[in-house]
Design a protein that fits this description.
TIM Barrel; 2 domains; eight-stranded parallel beta barrel; 9 strands
Length: 302
């Protein structure tokens, strides 16, 4: 696979304290260097997950030839304060990038949720480009046409989710004149003794249900989506608990992740790249060194 490879991480996975967040991101950057993965995307979900600018400078400096892309949600009240602080402190580092997204409502306050996602993202992109000339990704979840427009106007990279609509969204970006397209792909290379179907629903059940087309598929099959959602929230994702919804969700998952044997993951990554993504960012459903090694190997073999 000729596409540029990356790994996405969530700071919330690393614990509950600033020191744990810092150590987790440093480990991830070190593994990227070791494994030859040239891009690390850091997701900050809630306000407390954003790194201080001093921490980010330290991380980017240590990352050397690995580009570190820090995510900022446009609807967070302090979005511009974060962007301006990061951009000012890191403007001289060629391996620092920003990833601007509208912000998932799960991580927003009621006031922040009330903001227009489109206007917030448009404004933050405009402000950012006036200050920062480095690499910038722009999140396309639910806003693909806007992301493509902004990317074309400001020299950004639209960041798509791997999804059933992925081919259509690639075409939207191409029509807008985007030179580069990135995609986020949850992945897991199956290890011995793991029930892969159960693992996928344990790790991705909520993620699947946030896709409107998945909810519609359940409804079309006569399944009560809210009953399924509550079961998933309780962790009751066995076939005995979900019934026919188990089969429907697993069928849908094939459009949303790269999970399976090393060969199957490699085939999926090759498919993603051949459909138009030249930046492929994997999100490890189980973040271990072995999984990152296998992801890099799958990419090389695809």
């Amino acid at each position: 696979m000729e596409a540029r490879l990356g790994i996405a991480v969530k700071r919330s996975r690393y614990g509950v304290s600033a020191d744990e967040y810092r150590e987790g991101c440093a480990r991830a950057a070190s593994l990227c260097r070791e494994l030859g993965i040239p891009l690390l995307v850091i997701d900050s979900e809630f306000r407390e997950h954003y790194p201080a600018k001093e921490e980010l400078v330290e991380l980017v400096a240590a990352a050397q030839d690995v580009t570190v892309a820090q995510t900022v949600a446009a609807r967070h009240a302090e979005a511009w304060e974060f962007v301006s602080a990061y951009a000012s402190a890191l403007s001289e580092y060629p391996n620092f990038a920003l990833n601007l997204v509208a912000g998932n409502k799960l991580y927003l306050s009621p006031d922040e949720q009330s903001k227009s996602a489109r206007e917030a993202l448009r404004q933050l992109v405009s402000q950012t480009r006036a200050l920062f000339s480095g690499e910038v990704f722009v999140g396309a979840e639910g806003l693909c046409e806007l992301a493509a427009e902004l990317a074309s106007q400001h020299g950004l990279i639209p960041f798509l989710l791997y999804d059933k609509l992925f081919p259509q969204e690639v075409e939207i970006c191409r029509r807008a004149g985007c030179e580069s397209i990135a995609v986020y792909v949850p992945f897991y290379v199956a290890e011995e003794g793991v029930d892969l179907d159960l693992f996928i629903l344990q790790k991705l059940g909520g993620y699947l249900l946030r896709r409107k087309w998945v909810a519609q598929k359940l409804l079309d099959e006569g399944i009560d989506v809210e009953v399924v959602r509550r079961a998933v929230e309780r962790g009751e994702v066995e076939k005995s608990s979900l019934g026919h919804a188990w089969d429907v969700l697993l069928e849908c998952s094939d459009y949303l992740c790269a999970c399976g044997s090393l060969e199957e993951v490699a085939e999926k990554l090759e498919s993603v790249a051949s459909e138009g993504a030249n930046v492929v960012v994997g999100y490890a459903l189980e973040e271990t060194k072995q999984q990152l090694q296998l992801f890099a190997k799958a990419a090389r073999e695809s």
